[in-house]
Amino acid sequence: MIKHINALVTTTNEAQPLELIQIPLPELGEHDLLVKVMASGVNPVDAKQRSMAVAAGATRVLGFDGVGEVVGLGEKVADFNLGDRVFYAGQLSRTGSNAEYQLVDARIAARAPETVSVEAAAAMPLTFLTAYELLHDHFNIKMEARAARGKRLLIINGAGGVGSVMIQLAKWLGMEVIASASRPETVAWVEQMGADHVINHRDDYVPLVKSMGLAPVDYLAILHTPEPHIEAAAELIAPFGHIGAIVEPAAPLEVRKMKNKAASLDWEFMFAKTNADFEVASQGKALALLQQLIDSAQITTTLTERVHGLDAETIREAQDRVASGKVMGKLVAIFD
Q1: Which of 147, 208, 252, 291 lies 20 to 30 Å from 281 when distance is taken between CA atoms?
Q2: What is the DSSP letter of 327?
Q3: Quick check: helix, strand or coil at residue 48?
Q4: 92 and 211 co-located in one domain
Q5: Quick one: pLDDT at residue 326?
Q6: At 51, is the secondary structure helix, strand, or coil?
């Protein structure tokens, strides 16, 4: 029986914020899977949580996206078997995927896609759930092929992890997609993901969108710092339209221009459901849909970069690179 595991934990040293040590394996809960971790996706939240933990002197095992093999089952787990390969996006309150083994609530996991590598699968859960919940839970779009045919979506920061999968999901839903990108390589990437139109979010894009005959838009997703884009969003959104955001603003937002359009501003935070124990199983069901979409080639992985090893310096550098905003798609750590 496994009692201790190797894991990367946060330290109180800003210069060396991660350390590989042995820690006790938490007790298996009745709804838990014990997963031998094979790969872990790196997200902006990793560096943010690392900085908070170091400042607070807290010991945390980070890593949220994960893919691995089920090697243990809680007594109330009915939908998985030993040996299943699963993927999931984890929880803020539990030991993360930067470890040899991880306990995962079975309700937020699904069987991993069979047609792609473990690292390709590990790139997807957190960003897909963010895109899925924004479109389905907030924008009230039914998750069926072509269910949003005739609707128009503008995505600010289309080349990031969430934007890359949101473009694909929106196209599966039948939407016309405008995505923003600011460099030649990111323009090419969002076009590869399926965007119908590309704009530069560093320009004054409101007159451009209007001149292209693409305003108003039914839905608008701000997948970056919202302050520079909130007034443009209010200008471009359709009456009774939905504006979604995923990044906490540093200052109050000017939202008064939305009022006369009766437009809504929706906040998406992928961990909100597990933090509040609210409709937790919906995340496992969403990932089951993602597995089907990947295995039927309706959605492709957003994996673009790989690193190897459960190593403190390797993972720190990967977290910092993702936090810099310079990674297109997703970076994944493979634990060989």
Answers
A1: 147
A2: -
A3: helix
A4: no
A5: 87
A6: helix
Structure tokens at 316: 């720190």
* C-alpha–C-alpha distance, residues 70 and 333, integer Å: 19
* Cα within 13 Å of Cα(291), Cβ side: 18
DSSP 3-state assignment of 249? coil
Q: In whole angstroms, what is the distance from residue 86 CA to residue 203 CA?
A: 42
Residue 314 to residue 327: CA distance in whole angstroms: 16
Domain that holds residue 242: 128-267
| pLDDT at residue 211, as a whole number | 97
Are 324 and 240 in a shared domain? no
Q: What is the pLDDT of residues 25-44, one digit of tens each?
A: 999 999 999 999 999 999 99
CA dist., res. 97 & res. 254, Å (int): 38
* Rounded Cα gap, residues 333 and 39, in angstroms: 6
Tokens of 318: 């990967």
Token reading at 304: 């673009």
In this prediction the pTM is: 0.97
Report the number of distinct structural domains present in the chain.
2
Coil/strand/helix, residue 179:
strand
DSSP H helices in the chain: 44-56, 118-122, 125-133, 161-172, 184-193, 205-211, 230-236, 272-276, 281-295, 312-323
Q: Is 113 in contact with 319 (CB distance < 8 Å)? A: no
Of 214, 241, 267, which one is at a domain's C-terminal end?
Answer: 267
The predicted structure's pLDDT at residue 103: 98
Half-sphere exposure of 60 (CA within 13 A, CB side): 23
Q: What is the pLDDT of residue 74?
A: 97
| Structure token digits, residue 328 | 């297109």
Spans in the chain with pLDDT lower than 70: 1
Query: What are the two backbone dihedrals, phi and then psi, of residue 26, each rounded to the nearest 5 degrees?
Result: -60, 160
Q: Which residues contact 304 (CB under 8 A, 6 or more apart)?
A: 327, 328, 329, 330, 331
What integer pLDDT is reported at residue 50 of this predicted model? Answer: 97
